[in-house]
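Sequence in, structure out.
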Amino acid sequence: MNMDSIFDSLRRGTEQLSLQNATEKNAALKAVCRSLKANKEAIFKANEEDVKLARAKGTKESLIDRLSLNEKKLADIIAGVESIILQTDPIGEETCGWKTPGGLHIRQVRVPVGVVAIIYESRPNVTVDAFALAYKSANAILLRGSSSALNSNMAIVKAIKEGLASVKGGIPEAVELAPCKSHDEVTEILTAVGKVDLVLPRGSAKLIKTVVETAKVPVIETGSGVCHLYVDQSADLDMAARIAVNGKIQRPGVCNALECIVVNKEIAADFIPKLAAAFDGKVEVHADEESYPYFEKAAYNKLVHAQDQDFGFEFLDLICAIKTVASIDQAIEYINTHNTKHSESIITNNMANARLFQAKIDASCVYVNASTRFTDGGEFGFGAELGISTQKIHARGPMGIKALTTTKYLIDGNGQIRE
């Protein structure tokens, strides 16, 4: 199927979806869950092939983790779809309404965007998450994953279509997988004016930059994750070390993982030995001039001098930059200069500092005394997510069902004309 045929199929899918009610869409999503379970061995086999090829190419293990599937990950993916099923259907929701002096009844209601394309890298879970959120919000979706996950995505989309075809009212045309044969098809998607209503990039800074600069159709920009943890002078240092470990080590290859820890100079001598002990040699530390001696004194065995390019860089690996600052104002200025507007956190017992940090940091999610790893649609109660929007128009932060809706006005009259 060529791209024009795919666009036509998806448009037909949106037309059919516009006539579906919540009960029918939920029944179709339940059938997809059953099909994913029934086809899990084929999905795992396809995924094993992708992982094998990725390792042969020397892909780092933190990115292999994002690519790989297992029983637990698939169960979590299906649980995400089940959570979406339980959510209120946003389509047709009346967001506001009023009557004009001339007697017109005006209502603003939620409607689907239409044909949505998502361009993403090496994450088979996104294939299911994006489909389920699109289907529930009555959008048809074009999935353009990376070639590194092609076998996995083909097996998953096959299972999704089988599930949709198995239930009355299911619409297999509402989801298509791009062939992934060349990068030309990405350009074709991004310039498909009148055929694609919205594009969502999800992946590396390079991918997002390419999409934003090439697209002639509307884009919701998701950002790479250069996330910071600021340890304030009043912080509970044990808490800070524990959160640093969670943010950096749990899954270093994801966009909400920490890339830089900013330390107030007043507590550096006490905090850095705790951090060194907590990292336990698992993380390569790129320390600035002031923090380096403290790690050296702690005999930390993976220590290098930080370079300018380490600050504001998304490592996506067990590597972390350390920056020291003299005040919270300096921390805020540093973070706003080097972040990607994704997720930032402060560890503090000073609530004035906490609120100042939350007010002045420019990011989609700003935490106090908690890990940035919570920036996730599932953790926010959305069931799944399309990505983390780092822009300020239409959607910001984790994007759930409502991010794929827009509104229109419905106006009822009884013969009014404008004088």
